[in-house]
Amino acid sequence: MPHLAFFLASFSWNFGLGMTYMVVPLYAHSQGLTGVEIGMLFSMPVFGQVVFNLLGGAWTDRVGGRRIMLASCWLLSGGAVGLSFAQGFWMLFAGQFLLVLARATYWPATWALASEMPGVRSVQLGRLNSTTNLGQIAGTACAGFILAAAGYTPSFLTLAAMGFAGFVFGLTSREAPRRAGHARRLFAGYAELLRMRIMFYAMLCAYLSALPFSLSFSFYPLLLRDYGFTEQASGLIIALRAVGAIGAGLLLARFVKSGPASLSPVVAGVSVALSVGLLPLVNHAAPIAAWMLVAGVGSSLMTLYFQIMMSEISSQAQRGSALALGGLGWGMSHLTTPLAMGWLSDSVGVASGFYVLGAFALVWTIAIAALRGWVFAVTTRAGRT
Fold first, then answer.
1. How far apart are CA 291 and CA 259, in angstroms?
2. What is the pLDDT along the chain (385 residues), one digit of tens a residue?
3. How far is CA 340 from the centre of its chain?
4. Which of 107, 194, 291, 325 could bond 275 through an S-S bridge, CB–CB 3.0 to 4.6 Å?
């Protein structure tokens, strides 16, 4: 299979990422951090993610996505090693900051690489998203068992090893030849892209697509702990979000289209809103697992939608910048969601916080539905679609 090394690198990197969903929030809670402190731990480093997300996109256009992906693997391993020694909020913050930088550089690089592969773009992006979610399933599920059997330090060291494995596989991966062109300033592509209103619409879509993702590495584990689930059971349940995303990426990718007539963002947004808002309603594994699957499907559909939209409006020379700029919505979700949930969990409880967040996601979806015709009409008249 062409590009097998690239997909193996993506699987390994996301295996490590999936482990962080379970290990980091539970480790922070075990050290006595409050809900607000845990929210800050996951949100405040995102200020750095916003900057490095833009840097990663610009450098992807300058030097290619493969090199940026390899750097991201080292950041993931470094953050894991640092967390294995962390004691107290600020040491945890330093390790988490490296993990956030790893995410910031990884996503625009790999999205750009997949969008440039031969074949149908939506299918290749769907395969990438399915591979990353498969890695997250394995990592999240295994983290629960490693935690129960060996504790936190072996869990963090396993995470670091998966980052290194991603680097090794990435070394043998291939990248499409970059077209020759005149050298531009590092951030030159952003000025042109920011004049397009569709970029801000893409950020809205990316924000909603990242909402279940933001909850997976912050407050899903804490909700399940409050409901009495063990680490092993929590890991398996949270992994179901990625199972739903795999199904969407493999089975529905061909049907996801951009444009004002597409219902993909509306269907995806409603799925995310309902899955977040109704998940705590019944404290039983079956309905919680079902809503996790729905969250994965909705999140994956929305991610594919904005990835395809950004790939269609950008050239190869600015693909990384376009995906990084549209993907700022992910960073904003990672910044605001844990902070909001941390405040809500301390004020009204974790379960009630999910109800509030679900209602917010539904309002966000209505805004996306209302804006799509206007945004694409403006883009079409400007001759950019």
1. 28
2. 557 888 899 999 999 988 887 888 888 888 888 877 887 887 777 677 677 777 767 667 666 778 888 989 999 999 999 998 888 888 888 888 898 888 878 878 887 888 777 777 777 787 888 888 888 888 887 888 888 888 888 999 999 999 999 999 988 877 655 554 444 555 666 777 777 778 888 888 889 988 988 887 778 888 888 898 887 788 788 878 878 878 777 766 667 777 666 788 889 999 999 999 999 998 998 999 999 999 988 888 888 888 888 777 776 667 777 777 777 887 788 778 888 888 888 888 888 999 999 999 999 999 988 887 777 765 444 444 3
3. 18
4. 291
- The SS3 of residue 31 is coil
Backbone region of residue 349 per phi and psi (left: phi > 0; alpha: psi in -120 to 50; beta: other values): left
Backbone angles phi, psi at 196, to 5 degrees: -100, 120
Distances (CA, A) of 165 to 60, 91, 157, 170: 21, 25, 12, 8
Q: What is the DSSP letter of 177?
A: P
Task: Tokens for 185, please give them.
Answer: 């300033």
Burial class, 78, CB count within 10 angstroms (exposed 0-12 / middle 13-18 / buried 19+): middle
How far from the centroid of its chain's Cα atoms is residue 31's Cα?
26
